[in-house]
């Protein structure tokens, strides 16, 4: 590197550090101002320009609606933290984050977190990073375990009333948890409330149980696998909220073989949960009342690439 | 002030600011110390514990080898920046980053970057964020366009000699660029050097060209699509470097339909590039010399979930 460009690098680094320091000291420099209305204007300073282009391209009819939606993310570990980040960058209206875990160094090399966040609650660390990325998004964080009796009631309340407009329900609940109890709690709450939710999960396959049971061994997965699952989940969220493309009922990903099976999962008509059975009935009635859909096939036309 | 002393002044200021920032972020506890050897020890403070668990689980035989590899990422936009982040969190030995673009606010709501980084070169912004995430990784950044004659020669040199041990070639080149010229430059360089590389790309399909050609319209894609592509790319990189699972020849992803086609892409035996034809010959000879592979099918056994 020659001395002129080294000098330039140094000057940029000084500016970057000054801004970072100002932010830490509460000066608020470096953070962009909040934006009231998503503009389709094509300028380098419009943070929504590239997203609004999806509208002009005819992929999404009303991209700007994204900022009217509220999504609850339950569990902000490997899948949930990246899910929340993507929704934040997309300009979601409000995020409710639930988790009771703390950031440990052990998380840093796989996930979203940064070394200096070790010791913070995960929801707090996520909120801090994301608020800085997009100040337009509203955050509500709950640092508790949703499966205890008191917390479960509070969780139900926030799903019911924690929408962008206080008192309205959230639009979607995302299950990004890593244990059966929490998964069942989300399931129970959403069935009772008639709340739409999406499940995500990462499981370790092809493992010798004897190996797994040896002392000190825990099942884990590659950060890439988690990010792929988060990417698939948020893609489905955007399709569902903004009404484009096909939302798969179930989309799998087998990391070892690059296999992505899709399937429809049928509910159990004899389910123990009476609210589940009630939702099944309501779904059947809604389906029966709908006019039949006409499927129009389109040719795919490849016109441009975008990697930047 | 002459340029040498101005430089010294700037370097002092950088150090001063870095120290002040570290103090603000928690008494200098911010950045973790470098780690010489990846330990399989299961503690919350071991950043590689969860990754090394992949080894004990029998998925990856020698996970710790990851830190011996060098990967060059060409283009650190939507796909490249996230690719570099994942490799950093996984503990790659060295990353070479090539890009000539600057961070604009327009990038922030889609990609990896943060608002306060607007104005920095993309490679510099990526290096700064990633160095903080994992200080064990070595970075070498080049803020230039690889397609100009001078830069192309320098790019070839760094691919040939920029490995973890200076003078050795890199282990893998990743093409994360968004234009045909850069893609061809990577292709030409790697064919000439006999260097393994992987391509990635995001294209806009299903779009009416008339819409696209209207003033102010540019093709773009959802951040979720880019992250999925990056996830697929890095998963393939890990499989290739650490020798596990199946590396697909070509893996596609159609966002609208959740369709992931895999296929083998055959090279053109009449390719204009003589180095491409040479590589084809060498590949054929290598294949012919290899013993036939015996494929052993295994039952998938699901034993544990991991989302956290």
TrEMBL record, chains A, B:
Pfam families xrefs: ThiF
GO cellular component entries: cytosol
SUPFAM superfamilies reported for this sequence: Activating enzymes of the ubiquitin-like proteins
Keyword Lipid biosynthesis: no
THIF-type NAD/FAD binding fold domain segment(s): 48-204
GO terms under biological process: protein ufmylation
InterPro entries assigned to the protein according to its UniProt record, in alphabetical order: D-isomer_DH_CS1, ThiF/MoeB/HesA, ThiF_NAD_FAD-bd, Ubiquitin-activating_enz
Alphabetized UniProt keyword annotations: ATP-binding, Metal-binding, Nucleotide-binding, Ubl conjugation pathway, Zinc
Domain of life of the source: Eukaryota
Region (Disordered): 271-308
Comp. bias regions, Acidic residues: 297-308
Secretion signal, residue range per the UniProt entry: none
Bias type Basic and acidic residues, positions: 274-288
An example molecular function term from Gene Ontology annotations: ATP binding
Recorded family membership: Belongs to the ubiquitin-activating E1 family. UBA5 subfamily.
UniProt protein name: Ubiquitin-like modifier-activating enzyme 5
Organism (species): Chelonoidis abingdonii (Abingdon island giant tortoise)
């Amino acid at each position: 590197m020659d001395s002129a460009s080294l000098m330039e690098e140094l000057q940029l680094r000084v500016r970057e550090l000054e801004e970072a320091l100002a932010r830490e000291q509460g000066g608020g420099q470096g953070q962009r101002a909040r934006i009231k209305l998503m503009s389709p204007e094509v300028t380098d300073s419009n943070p929504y320009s590239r997203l609004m282009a999806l509208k002009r391209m005819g992929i999404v009819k009303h991209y700007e609606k994204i900022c009217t939606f509220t999504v609850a993310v339950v569990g902000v570990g490997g899948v949930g933290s990246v899910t929340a980040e993507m929704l934040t960058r997309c300009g979601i209206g409000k995020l409710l984050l639930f988790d009771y875990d703390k950031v440990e160094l052990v998380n840093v090399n796989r996930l979203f977190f940064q070394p200096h966040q070790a010791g913070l609650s995960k929801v707090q660390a996520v909120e801090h990073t994301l608020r800085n990325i997009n100040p337009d998004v509203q955050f509500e964080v709950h640092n508790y375990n949703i499966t205890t009796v008191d917390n479960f009631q509070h969780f139900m309340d926030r799903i019911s009333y924690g929408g962008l407009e206080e008192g309205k329900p959230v639009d979607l609940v995302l299950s990004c948890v890593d244990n059966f109890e929490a998964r069942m709690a989300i399931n129970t709450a959403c069935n009772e409330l008639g709340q739409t939710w999406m499940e995500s999960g990462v499981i370790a396959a092809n493992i010798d149980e004897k190996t797994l049971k040896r002392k000190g061994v825990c099942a884990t997965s590659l950060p890439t696998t988690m990010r792929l699952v988060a990417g698939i989940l948020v893609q489905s969220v955007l399709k569902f909220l903004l009404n484009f493309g096909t939302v798969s009922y179930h989309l799998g990903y087998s990391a070892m073989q690059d296999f992505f099976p899709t399937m429809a999962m049928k509910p159990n008509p004899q389910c123990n949960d009476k609210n589940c059975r009630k939702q099944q009935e309501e779904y059947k009635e809604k389906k029966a009342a709908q006019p039949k859909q006409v499927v129009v096939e389109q040719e795919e036309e490849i016109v441009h690439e975008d990697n930047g």
